[in-house]
Design a protein that fits this description.
6 helices, globular, single chain, five-stranded mixed β-sheet, nine-stranded mixed β-sheet, alpha+beta
């Protein structure tokens, strides 16, 4: 998989829905003189720490222009970097009897209305209580394309974002759904409460998103090592200092809506990372994945599902309407 200074559109799988074994970058002029461990960390689409990248380098999993290097090597324009991601060590994910609100399920796909506070898949610090733990108890059968930590997971929504997420129950279904996501044909519409009164009724934010150079855990609008990102929005209701929006994702970048709304000066209410500290408080960002539509992997039929807003967002809107 060749990446010319940028990640490809899919974080975990290639265009055929198969696990990526090697990731390749060609260094552009803007990244010259960056330490290679920092360069790789900032360019990876997955949540991988710099220390993990340094271990990969030390173990010989990274080459530059077909030769070995050290973590302190500073890249040059035109360098060809190849990372061969090692197979993950065996990890046992324990199925957990966690209640799920299921919008749809058959032998290929399950669609769940995820609650606020639930992490999608196990990661450092979240080895249990995740959607994957719950799905493994409920389904018994999930696709294996994304490996042991993310069985069945085709896409993600943030821990404190509520709403619809789909998972694949076999590899054929996973490949089909992943292809639809890559082609941007999946219909994903969100409801969000944002700060400020947006004067125009609708708009489109077309701004690339990449790692924040000051903090790799965050994302920002940037031209450096970024991915194309497009978000369409329509104002549903106005509350003076707040606006309720419906947003349609054309692309699916990490934290896309949160980053784009901050970029235009209307961050999400309750967002602990990209939002404001003043005003109405909410336990997590006021963002809800309300509609999810896709072509069924086996029948070819278009399926669309909707989920009502969570109670805390509804209560917040009631307060705002009564002011």
């Amino acid at each position: 998989m060749v990446q010319d200074g940028k990640d490809t559109d899919t974080d975990w799988t290639d265009e055929n829905g198969q696990e990526t074994e090697a990731i390749e970058w060609t260094v552009d002029a803007d990244a010259a003189k960056t330490r290679i461990d920092k360069y790789i960390t900032e360019n990876l689409g997955e949540d991988v720490s710099r220390s993990q990248v340094q271990l990969w380098i030390a173990d010989g999993h990274v080459s530059v222009n077909d030769g070995p290097i050290k973590s302190n090597y500073k890249v040059s324009q035109g360098d060809r970097i190849v990372l061969k991601v090692p197979e993950p060590s065996a990890v046992e994910i324990i199925p957990e009897d966690i209640p799920l609100e299921i919008a749809f399920e058959d032998g290929d796909v399950i669609v769940v209305n995820k609650p606020r506070g639930m992490v999608v898949h196990p990661a450092p610090g979240h080895s249990s209580g995740t959607l994957v733990n719950a799905l493994m108890f409920h389904c018994k059968d999930l696709s294996g394309i994304n490996g042991e930590l993310r069985p069945g997971i085709v896409h993600r929504i943030d821990k404190d974002t509520t709403g619809l997420i789909m998972a694949a129950k076999n590899d054929k279904a996973h490949a089909s759904l992943a292809a639809q996501l890559k082609e941007h044909s999946v219909n994903r519409r969100y409801l969000a409460l944002v700060h400020g009164n947006i004067s125009h009724d609708q708009g489109t934010i077309d701004a690339p998103i990449g790692r924040d150079s000051q903090d790799r855990k965050l994302y920002t609008v940037t031209d450096r090592n970024s991915k194309h990102a497009v978000t369409h929005f329509t104002v549903v209701e106005r509350f003076g200092d707040y606006s309720l929006l419906e947003l349609k994702l054309e692309t699916g970048r990490t934290h896309q809506i949160r980053v784009h709304m901050k970029y235009i000066g209307h961050p999400l209410v309750g967002d602990p990372v990209y939002g404001k500290s003043k005003g109405i408080k909410l336990n997590g960002q006021a963002l809800h994945a309300a509609v999810l539509g896709f072509v069924h992997p086996s029948t070819g039929e278009y399926k669309e599902f909707s989920a009502p807003m969570p109670s805390d967002m509804n209560e917040l809107l009631t307060i705002l309407r009564g002011r």
